[in-house]
Amino acid sequence: MEQVHAPVPQFGPGTKKAMMINRIFDKLRVEIPVLRINWTVSADGDLFHGAGTTGKSDRSYDSAFLRVEVQTLHKMARSGAILFTIRTHVDPLAMLESHPDRARLARGLAASLSMLDTPQWHYKGLARAREQLLARIDAIASDAV
What is the chain's mean pLDDT, rounded? Predict the structure, then answer.
């Protein structure tokens, strides 16, 4: 799992987060599937971000997308193999402007994005547009859209 997550800042081999992921996989039980919801903001609406494609270009905040992944892990009884499923939803950030709960959601998004470090912004392909993106989200949070 460490190799799969190696390109992700702070998830490479030997990191605390890599060890946490390994522990989750090691402790999976047949009778208890795991559901995980993962989200991010990405620079494009592509469903697939294979090795080396994320962060290739820094785009304007106008092209930013909210990406939500619903992931499941099921340990198979006979083989011990792990079945991984993923359903990805990608929507333009602009759709947040019309959401009835946009201010609360935007405040949460801004708080989460403020915790990203520079390598994470670059990985997402949004480093150049960071200030514009945060300003746009702050405007949504203040209902100034």
Answer: 85
Question: What does the pLDDT read at residue 50?
Answer: 60
Position 47 pLDDT exceeds 90 = no
The mean pLDDT of 121-135, rounded to a whole number, is 86
Beta strands 65-75 and 82-92 are: antiparallel
Rg (CA), the chain: 17
Helix/strand/coil (H/E/C) assignment for every residue in 36-55:
EEEEEEECCCCCCCCCCCCC
pTM exceeds cut of 0.85: no
